[in-house]
Amino acid sequence: MKTINIRLPILLLMTLFFSLWGKEAISASVKKDSTAVSLRTFNQGELNKYRSNAEFNYEEGGEDVSLSWWDQFWNRVWTWIRRWFGNIEKPGLSHSPGYWKYIFLTLIAGVLIYILIKSKGLSLSGLFSRKSPSIEVPYTEFSEDIHGISFDEEMGKAVEARDFRLAVRLLYLRSLKHLSEAGKIKWVPGKTNSEYVRELRHTEQRRIFSVLTREFEYIWYGNFPVDNRMFDRIRNAFADFDKGGYK
Description:
The chain crosses the membrane at residues 99-117. It comes from Pararcticibacter amylolyticus. The chain has helices at residues 2-29, 44-51, 69-85, 99-119, 124-127, 151-160, 164-181, 193-199, 203-220, 228-244. It is an all-alpha fold. Among the domains are: 67-129, no CATH class; 146-244, no CATH class. It is elongated and about 140 Å long. It starts with a helix and ends with a helix.
């Protein structure tokens, strides 16, 4: 009991000592800031000067009045392009040759030329290919009457006009007429060429006429160009067939 009575006062004294020492240490570490504070103000005149300078205006949407109407136009064009196609690099006004600008002008010119060609009823392929002058013939594509065509006269017109594709078609129609008159085929408007070939019973005759038919279709329906030399060869082939094809 005596031991407990002695220790208790000692513990109380130690607790009081350390609590007082901690307060003193804390109070000693805190110092009052006595530094003088200098307040700084904005120079309103300088701010107004920068605000009035266009070079320090970074807002978009305004037009620079110092630019020409042409430069202002391209600024608007590039704003529209970036809005729709993303932020592609815009060449500066001082850049040369202005790569994207000339591409855009080329596209516009191409569209205008295309509209002009279509308005005139022209064909784009016809502008880049040499085509024999066409002549009027007394029959249409699907309803020609082979028994009412003057083949010698019409073929003479086609050759004179150097429309050799039409001349080859006339050679083929004339062969159909001769085969029909000889009873080898039954000519009917709208019947296909392959049907006429199958009607021929003679094997060699059918083989030769099948070759002539394919060549005619390749030239006429495939728009294959025919020159004078090629036409002479085809005309001789039809002439050889005419000699023995109707017996």
